[in-house]
Amino acid sequence: MSAATPVLSMRGIGKSFTGVRALDDVSLDCHAGEVHAICGENGAGKSTLMKVLGGVYRPDEGEILLGGQPVAFRHPVEARRAGISIIHQELSLLPERSVADNIFLGLEPTRSGLLDRAVMQNGARRLLERVGARVHPGALVKSLSIAEQQLVEIAKALALDASIIVMDEPTAALDDRDAGRLLELVGTLRREGAAVLYISHRMAELKAIADRITVLKDGKLVATHTAAALTPAMIVRLMVGRDLADFFPTPGDPAKLGPIVLSVQDGGNAVLADIALDLRAGEIVGIAGLEGSGKGALGRALFGDEPFTRGRMMIDGHEGLISSPRTAIAAGIGFLSDDRKREGIAPQQSLRDNVLMTLRAFAQRLLPPGSGAMARTAADRQLTEVDVRAAGFAQEIRELSGGNQQKVVIGRWLARDPKLLIFLEPTRGIDVAAKAAIYQLMRSLADRGRAILMISSDLPEIIGVSDRVIVMHEGRLAGELKRGASEEQVMHLALGTGATEAAA
Amino acid sequence: MSASADIAVARPAREIPVAPLLFAGSLALYIVTALATGQHAYLTGEGFVGLTQRMVALGIVALGQTLTILVGSIDLSVANLISVAAVLASFIMKGEPAMIAPAVLAVLALSAAVGLVNGLIIARLDVNPLIATLGVGLILQGLLSASFSNFAGSVPSAFQAFAYGRIGPLPWSVLLLFVLAFAIWLMLTRTRFGAHLYATGGNRDGARLAGIRTERVIIGAHVLCSLMAGLTGLYLASRLRAGAPWVGRDGVYDLESIAVVVIGGTLLAGGRGGVWGTLAGVFLFATLDAVFNMTGIDAFPKQVLRGAIVILAVAVYAVRSRGHVA
Amino acid sequence: MSATAAHTAPSAALRFVRGINVGVAIFLVLYGTIAVLQPSYFEVEGFLNFLRRAAPLIILACGQLFVIAGGGFDLSMGSLVTLTVLGGSMLAGGNPENTWWTIGVLYLIGLGVGLVNGLVVTLLKVPSIIATLGMLLSLNGAALMWSGGAPRGYLPENFRALGRLVYREVPVTGIMPLSVIILIGFVALAAWLLHATVFGRQVLAVGDNPRAAELAGVPVGATRVLVFVISALSAVTAGILLGGFAGVSTAVGQGLELQAIAACVIGGAQLLGGRASVTGAVAGSLSLFALFTLLNLMGLPQPLRETVQGLILIAAVASSAWRMRRA
Predict the structure, then answer these.
(1) % of chain A surpassing 90 pLDDT
(2) How confident is the model over A452-457, as a mean pLDDT?
(3) B207 CB within 8 Å of a chain A CB
(4) CA nearest C242: which of C229, C258, C256, C231?
(5) Residues on chain A touching C275 (C-beta within 8 angstroms)
(6) Of the candidates B144, B308, B318, which has its C-beta nearest C138's C-beta?
(7) Which residue on chain C is closest to B145 by alpha carbon?
(8) Exposure of B1 by Cβ count < 10 A (0-12 exposed, 13-18 middle, 19+ buried)?
(9) Could you give the CA distance from residue B228 to residue B114 in angstroms, rounded to a whole number?
(10) Which of A300, B139, B321, C146 is an S-S bond match for A305, by CB 3.0 to 4.6 Å?
């Protein structure tokens, strides 16, 4: 690491949104050839800090220095011109445009006023090679896999030839294999002298690539240390402010397993094939698999959102076919989407209206909205049972944190006393403390005789919470593991490699 | 790794060559109807020139509408702006050839100003484009109807050449339509503004993060669209020999321009599509017009049919989409 | 959600400001101004006559409100009003004996129009603004086709009574227009349906987030179809009242759909769904009607109504967008 002036330095950055302090006196710097990791819980201010750096937000206080010179960005275009390239958390590619169009978006080379297509094609090919993506520059982005899209996103960031590269949870949507490939690329960039700011939750990644680690909490800087000086446990303690000894709940008691609630034979549709599955009351079954393995599709098929088109289903011992979410709900199945904002909450309605939505969906249309089981006291009981923290239950749900919104959606299902609950990525985008609460909730639901199907990309969660783990590969069930399986075992099944090659 | 994404990604629609298919289908319909009704005059060179002439008014405004829809917006004020432009042109000209240039300039300046207002309300005030342009359209129509209740002024015969003049067998107006289409095609596919227009329509936040000034792109698209509407108004004034405050509404240019753009394969949500599809859609509507004429269907049932066709045409594209529309 | 999400409820003051219905405030100001210019408006009789003339708009706004709450628009209302008036006069042909079955047929037509709108939106997935604009074209064409371009026939006296009859020497109020009684009944029905039934909550949930509602089991399609049916039936009702005092013409319903939308927006309804109140819609339509009355009194030309509506639409939506960004 050079002792010269840091390429980037942020001094005393502060930013408020309608009275809430999102950032408070945060200072950090980054040298050429350094990977500086930033971690913290959701809402700690990491993304806000990066948006300040990228010119999306203007800081209320503090200043940004590039190579010692103060700068002030009013629009992302100015940050880009100053050599800052940001790979944002959400993919920002245009699905209907070609890979080359996307890579050179905002930087299109022109010749006498017209786009220079040849330069774009060649440039794109070079950048794609560099990130190791075997993708044609003329291909439409929508035809690519998520992992390929992520690589295009990185090629897009490199097109700028930036001296400062910011990556905001670049591996969040990737499976471990693709994440490994990405980490190698970060190493290359570092060797080439880029200053890399790397935001992540994943401890293994931080240990693997970071030179220094800065921890944020509640918008404030907690500490900056060299990576070698920190252990994962120390990082977690800095992030959360306490130890998380009982992070995962105690396992279920195998003796208390109930009858089979749902069983599928030879289930299949456009994405899935040969699905055979028995779920018992009282157990938490984890479904693991890479991106594209069909694990999400399995959840949606069981819930009738993208139903099975082949095979047989037995629900509570009765043969039946689930063709829509409504029939699934009527049969006693509940579902939590991985996209809470788009598929979970009705943002402008109150907590009570949200928690009662499913009960009301099956009530007589002309009944009063608060009659019988839909009474306000009943709603409040549901909300209390799932431990929602809110100023009041008449509050609009969009004002709540992600974890609390998730609890309300869980509460919605409890009102109908479902036999099976399907959780799709239940803790995605939820902070550490709320995660633990949701795991406890899942366990207590299972203990009270419900079957829980937890579909997740988060391996520690799959292993820590599930009573047994089913791994999917290319739309089929690749194998089943007992509680206590290792991450390696899961990965072998997920990759379809058997025992030959370990995950990168 | 298999390319199929895990979660509910919209199934990729099959890519259909919309423009040529639409064009061929419309042409076939036209010829078959002409043969079936025995009106062979429609099949002469003059008949086909007449068919292309039916495309001009809707075609020009639809080219503009293509831009607003591509950028993820929409313009419901075009019909009213067309009326304003037509009336203003003939009111300023008052039959004087000397006033042609000032009138044309005034109309184009006003149109650009309306587009600027639309764009500013949408991009800066964050007003839903349907509402913003509906509102601006109402404002324009109210002011216009309060000031004029009938044909106002007239256009000099020199200006009527715009609609009736020909270069060889080809009318000027048809030529203009195709020149404009070519220019816009060039702009969309070969300039940075075009690339940024697709980007803004495809993913506004993503485009902004890539350093594109999306507000300017949206405003630019609206200014161009309004200019096209203004041109359409000038053309109608020339064709009708005077402007009247109802020409835009009577032509239902707002709805029909949106319909032909969507029929032409441009995504209503923005980000995908282009001018040739739109022109093919316009050709379909011109064909239907001609077919109604050949078969002698009355004006009123024609209106009912057109309403139904608009809905069905949009439905052909929309019905495959997953999820809900409101 | 990031740290920016407030974990606390909005301050009491902010909630109070949000709670005041803007529409009510605007209406009181406008009506006060009218009454200063024309003191007869201060009397009960003046107010009831004002209500009688405003009744069709209020009814349209209440119907439109359901569609807006569900996340859509119904632009075909005005043309359905026209069709009702023209069709009514064609069917009844001036014969009072035909009135009741004519009204029955008109409601059946309304039911059909609403069903078609709803099914086109839910099954064919055509955005409602386009679907109902297409319906507007078709209904206008149909109305003209039916009447042969120029309205014929006339509405029988007992049909017209629904809109124009005024009971005299009523205790307390002095007079009581029949249409005001119909209006009160209709508004009460709408308020009950939107605010005091499970159906009302389903409409709001569907308008707020149709995908979440679907995954929660709400019958999204049926709900959508029903709101369009409600809207169409209210357009028929408004048309019947309007036929009583506006006379038979092909322009009778023109532009009413936009007035209804503007009224809902003034009353605090959120375009694209999720938030709506019947009180607001009533107050909004009263404000709009008072504004038109005021403009008339001030001698401004009729077409400027459109301009005013346009300004209102943009201002209302811009201010609500501004409020959402700040809150």
Answers:
(1) 46
(2) 93
(3) yes
(4) C256
(5) 348
(6) B308
(7) C303
(8) middle
(9) 12
(10) A300
DSSP, collapsed to helix, strand or coil, labels residue A215 as strand
For B143, the closest of C133, C271, C307 (CB atoms) is C307
Of C200, C209, C214, the CB nearest to A345: C209
Domain segments of chain C: what residues? 23-326
Distance CA A376, CA A368 (A): 12
Instruction: State the pLDDT at residue A291.
Output: 73
Q: B114 CA to chain C: closest CA distance, Å? A: 14
Domain locations in chain B? Answer: 2-317
For residue B17, what pLDDT is reported? 78
Residue whose C-alpha is closest to residue B208's, from A252, C188, A92? A92
Which residues of B are less than 8 Å from A114 in CB distance?
186, 190-191
Q: Looking at per-residue confidence, does B270 or B123 come out higher? A: B123
Of B6, B196, B212, which to mutate for an interface test with A (greatest number of A Cβ within 10 Å)? B6
Q: Chains A and B: how many Cβ contacts under 8 Å?
A: 118
Q: Which two tokens stand for residue A91?
A: 């993919």
Buried b or exposed e, range C147-161, using 16+ CB within 10 angstroms: beeebebbbbeebbb
Separation in Å, CA of A268 to nearest CA in chain C: 21
CB contact set of A186 (below 8 Å; sequence gap of 6+): A35, A167, A196, A198, A209
Chain B partners (3+ C-beta pairs within 8 A) = A, C
Cβ contact (<8 Å) for C211 and A343?
yes
Q: Chain centroid to CA A156: how far?
A: 22
The answer on pLDDT for B180 being more than 90 is yes
Q: CA-to-CA distance for A54 and A86, rounded, in angstroms?
A: 7
Out of 1.10.3470, 3.60.21, 2.60.120, 1.20.120, the CATH code matching B2-317 is: 1.10.3470
What are the residues facing A278 on neighbouring strands? A263
Locate A139 and state its tokens. Answer: 């291909």
Q: How far C218 CA sits from the closest chain A CA (Å)?
A: 4
pLDDT digits 0-9 by tens, A91-133: 678 888 999 999 999 889 998 889 999 999 999 999 998 887 8
Over range A365-375, report the average pLDDT. Answer: 91
Tokens of B240: 């009708």
Assess C270–A contact: CB distance below 8 Å, yes or no.
Answer: yes
Q: What pLDDT was estimated at residue B102?
A: 96
Q: Contact C207/B326, CB-based, under 8 Å?
A: yes
Token readout for C183 is: 């209006």
Q: What pTM value is reported for the model? A: 0.83
Comparing C164 with A454, which gets the higher pLDDT?
A: A454
Q: What is the pLDDT of residues A378-403, one digit of tens each?
A: 999 999 988 888 888 998 898 887 78
Pick C300 or B143 by higher pLDDT. B143
CB contact under 8 A, C126 and B126: no
- Interface with chain B: mutation pick from C67, C125, C270, highest number of B CBs within 10 Å: C125
Please tell me if residue B4 touches chain A, with a CB cutoff of 8 Å.
yes
The whole-number pLDDT of residue B12 equals 37
Distance CA B4, CA A499 (A): 25
pLDDT digits (tens, 9 = 90+) for A349-369: 999 999 999 999 999 999 999
Q: Does A369 contact C198 at a Cβ distance shorter than 8 Å?
A: yes
Low-confidence ranges of chain C (pLDDT < 70): 1-21, 323-327
Q: How confident is the model at residue A43 (pLDDT cuts 50, 70, 90)?
A: low
Copy the structure tokens of residue A10: 């942020």
Average pLDDT over every residue of A3-10? 85
Beta bridge partners of A111: A114
C127/B319 CB distance under 8 A: no
Question: DSSP string covering A50-79, please?
Answer: HHHHTTSS--SEEEEEETTEEE--SSHHHH
Under an 8 A CB cutoff, do A395 and C212 touch?
A: no
How close A496 comes to chain B (CA, Å)?
11
